[in-house]
Design goal:
With about 375 residues, the protein is an alpha/beta fold. The protein has helices at about 5-20, 45-60, 75-90, 100-110, 125-135, 145-155, 180-185, 210-215, 240-250, 255, 265-280, 280-295, 320-330, 360-375, and strands at about 30-35, 95, 115-120, 140, 160-165, 190-195, 220-225, 235-240, 310-315, 335, 335-340, 350-355. The termini are far apart. It binds pyridoxal-5'-phosphate. Pyridoxal-5'-phosphate binds near residues 127, 195, 197 and 236.
């Protein structure tokens, strides 16, 4: 072994031995999709593709954005898209990022300052945690959806306080208690920041998310929306008040020091929301499929996993069991991915089943039948 690679080789070998070494694989398109985040089928929509391409042709913009938004990368298309998004989400202002990862990194690394406190749900996505780690503020997890633990930590917090959560948890499919979190934030004068990665497009009027659906926009300080999941494209934005957006433009390194998204990305964002507005059936089909899945599944699940989000979870405990069950489902034609530790905690390894508007009733019934016979 080359001496230079000794350390990383040992670490990779450890993963191989534990059965959790990651590798890049191609998706088998012949399998029925129960694993992608394409909840509304917009990524495979020929209608949306045509709409994006015809607008791209019509506007005929530059291929690339040519620079950071603060240099040559800004455009009327970018600012118009952001105004439309702000209006849709019910905020004063909005700023597009290259991805949800950089949007959260950009927000949490710069707004909370030295002497401030970030309290984040322990099951928050890696990018909320990484952003908090980059910040000079003190950061601390609270137990998942546990308001008592959060309140205990709020009492100990210093400076300006930020509370971070996800509207729908990506690996669990359950919801944050948003109304109660708003009340607690008000009581302690904290700023609630909600990541809507798995609720953008699925909930709210015209896909405006769960915060808007629950009428909480005024109480939620900032919301992060992503477009790579139900919206079927790519990118993300932070929605908040104008001062927060100005602050990010001035101080957020993941926003400033990167090439702006191309015009194609902005056109795709505009058209995806337009398409969704004109096709409300997508969201209702998805909701019907979620109801059917939950009605028919007989596998015992703790109450917190009985969710009406598109993400359904069955805990298998152990990487091997999760992998074997996923393989058995593949043999009968279904793409259901195992989520292994260390992505989730040891003992909480699972099958993550993503339901879509395009899954037929027959496909859902066959999957449920497979799960019932393998796991009951
Ligand atoms: C909750 C949550 N936030 C943020 C992200 C990152 O978004 P993106 O994939 O657009 O970088 C994800 C994606 O996995 C997510 O699940």
């Amino acid at each position: 072994m080359d001496k230079k690679n000794l350390k990383i080789d040992q670490q990779l070998n450890k993963r191989t031995l534990l059965g959790n070494k990651r590798s890049l694989t191609l998706t088998d398109e012949k399998l029925v999709d129960f694993s992608s985040n394409d909840y509304l089928g917009l990524s495979r929509s020929e209608g949306l593709k045509t709409q994006i391409l015809s607008n791209y042709e019509k506007l005929s913009p530059k291929n690339g954005s040519t620079g950071s938004r603060l240099l040559t990368g800004n455009s009327l298309l970018a600012t118009q898209t952001e105004s439309e998004l702000a209006k849709l989400f019910g905020y004063n202002a909005c700023l597009v990022f290259n991805s949800g990862y950089t949007a959260n990194l950009g927000f949490f690394s710069c707004l909370p300052q030295r002497g401030d406190t970030i309290l984040y749900d322990e099951l928050s996505h890696a990018c909320i945690k990484d952003g908090s780690r980059l910040s000079l503020a003190k950061s601390m997890p609270f137990k998942h959806n546990d308001l008592e633990d959060l309140e205990r930590k709020l009492k100990l917090s210093e400076g300006e306080i930020y509370i971070a959560c996800e509207a729908v948890y990506s690996m669990d499919g359950d919801f944050a208690p948003l109304k109660k979190l708003c009340l607690l934030s008000e009581k302690y004068n904290a700023k609630l920041v909600v990541d809507e990665a798995h609720s953008t497009g699925v909930f709210g009027n015209n896909g405006s998310g769960l915060v808007a659906e629950l009428g909480l926009t005024e109480q939620v300080y900032a919301t992060i929306f992503t477009f790579g999941k139900a919206m079927g494209i790519h990118g993300a934005c932070v929605a908040s008040n104008q001062m927060v957006i100005d602050y990010i433009i001035n101080y957020s390194r993941p926003f400033i020091y990167t090439t702006a998204p191309s015009s194609f990305e902005f056109i795709a964002i505009q058209q995806a929301f337009k398409f969704l507005k004109n096709t409300p059936k997508l969201a209702t089909d998805l909701k019907e499929n979620i109801t059917l899945f939950n009605q028919e599944l007989k596998v015992q699940r703790p109450a917190r996993y009985l969710s009406n989000s598109a993400v359904q979870v069955i805990i298998t405990s152990g990487n091997q069991k999760a992998k074997t069950t996923s393989k058995q489902l593949e043999e009968i034609g279904f793409d259901v991915r195992p989520i292994l530790s260390p992505t989730v905690r040891e003992g909480e390894e699972r099958l993550r089943i993503c339901l879509h508007s395009f899954n037929s009733k027959k496909e859902i019934m066959s999957l449920v039948h497979g799960l019932n016979s393998l796991l009951c």
